[in-house]
Amino acid sequence: xxxxxSAGFNIEDLINVPPLKEDEDMQEVKVDQMLxxxxxxxxxxxxxxxxIKDIKxxxxxxxxxLATLQNEAYQLEGIHKEKEELCRNLQFQCEESExxxxxxxxxxxxxxxxxxxxxxxxxxFKLKHRKQRMKFENQLHQLIEQHRNLxxxxxxxxxxxxxxxxxxxxxxxxSAEQMKLSQLHRLDEELEEVKxxxxxxxxxxxxxxx
Length: 210
Description:
The chain is mostly helical. The protein has 4 helices and no strands. It starts with a helix and ends with a helix.
């Protein structure tokens, strides 16, 4: 039911007005009918104006709501694009981190293999050095015993030459030992350097992950 019906006004009543008789006795009735018709028209006009006013108010409210919704939709679209861009950046960073981790794992594996190789070489070198030292001590002990025995055989004039020869042999053996010790020290320094490089790579990887 519209507002015109609720007010007791029907536009069809204005249209379907029964024709008046043309008798002279009905002139007054005709005037009353025309006045009634005019009043109904005026009433209908007011009702229509109220309905138009209400419709316009509803239309304005709907237009404002539509504009608000369009603005919100535009803002949401912008936020959605920002989220997509952020997601792409995070995905790219994640892939880079995975590649860096794989590369570091590979480097660490090589470093571990190199460290193990150095350990084996150092152990082998220490064992070899120990054997050489024992051999040197045995040779030195034998030389001392030989000189003790030769002292009773050779003349005192030959003893200084024999002692000098023994001293030369001893010096040569000591030089060889010193050279081996230097090589061992150099291997230890290289091992420490490899350990430092590995620690630096691990620290750098942890810093990138943070």
